[in-house]
Amino acid sequence: MTDTQRQIYQTDGDRYEALIAREDYQGNILRALEEIIAPDGLDILDLGAGTGRLAVMLAPRAKSMRAFDVSEEMLRVCRQRLEASGLSNWKVEIADHRQLPVANHSADLAVSGWSVSYLAVWNPDSWRAELEKWLGEMKRVLRPNSPIVLFESLGTGNESPLRLEHLQNFYRWLDETGFQSKWIRTDYKFESLEEADELSRFFFGDDLGNMVRRKNWIVLPECTGVWWLKV
Questions:
Q1: Angstrom distance (rounded) from CA 13 to CA 15
Q2: How far apart are CA 220 and CA 217, in angstroms?
Q3: What is the radius of gyration, based on Cα positions, of the chain?
Q4: Cys-Cys with 78: which of 14, 52, 106, 223 at CB 3.0–4.6 Å?
Q5: Taking Cα atoms as reference points, which of 118, 138, 223, 141 lies closest to residue 181?
């Protein structure tokens, strides 16, 4: 997680959404979730919702959808996308993973994509305590025996999964805590090589942008881990 990416989350929601709109063109994220739990009629929380990747996908099937993020810029785009859906069963709010404005035992499902891991990445000296605090908050807001489902990177530009060095503490904690896991492909499909180069370079940096250009990747491979736990 570079300082450049952290800045993007605060200032460049539209361009970030342009990248995310190309991800998972085969629809594997929803299929993976449905293998764990059907989202129909559930009260769902999306943690670190960003521009609404999961919230927009799940809101049409949810009883209620509450999307949280610490970035108002990300939520600005998320809000626009949910408004465009014509649905009225959602709320978008600024909140930290560890302290949600949610009543006790009021949700059936918590999802989070590419976000909870930052509790470990951004807090290298207290990462375990931060993750434990987050898990305690999940136990507070979820109804008994309700699942948490997390999506996290196992390598962009990789055709098989790779546990990334900067996420090793997070992966290990998930294993120790009893999360089950599997992995899926969430490849990006761009409209042109120029778009693939520009958007991948924008977020992931020059090394990946150069690889996209060198390999003529209009479809950029990506592996994603799916972890889940009932609390």
A1: 6
A2: 6
A3: 17
A4: 52
A5: 223
Length of the chain: 231
What pLDDT shows up at residue 99? 96
Q: For residues 91, 119, 17 and 221, what is the CA-based torsion angle, rounded to 10 degrees?
A: -130
Say if residues 78 and 49 touch (Cβ distance below 8 Å): yes
DSSP secondary structure, 66-123, as one string: EEEES-HHHHHHHHHHHHHHT--SEEEEE-BTTB-S--TT-BSEEEEES-TTHHHHS-
Q: What is the pLDDT of residues 95-146, one digit of tens each?
A: 999 999 999 999 999 999 999 999 999 999 999 999 999 999 999 999 999 9
| Structural domain count of the chain | 1
For 22-41, letters b (16+ CB in 10 Å) and e give bbbeeebbeebbeebbebee
Q: Is residue 207 part of a domain?
A: no
Which of 130, 120, 122 has its CA nearest to residue 6?
Answer: 122
Tens digits of residue pLDDT in 16-26: 999 999 999 99
Q: Which domain holds residue 92?
A: 3-189+222-230
Residue with tokens 């120029």: 194
The 10s digit of each residue's pLDDT in 39-88 is: 999 999 999 999 999 999 999 999 999 999 999 999 999 999 999 999 99
Bridge pairing between strands 109-113 and 64-69: unpaired
What is the DSSP code (8-state) at residue 218? S
> Do residues 187 and 221 touch, judged by C-beta distance below 8 A?
yes
Instruction: Give the CATH number of the domain where residue 62 resides.
Output: 3.40.50.150
- Decide if 200 is inside a domain: no
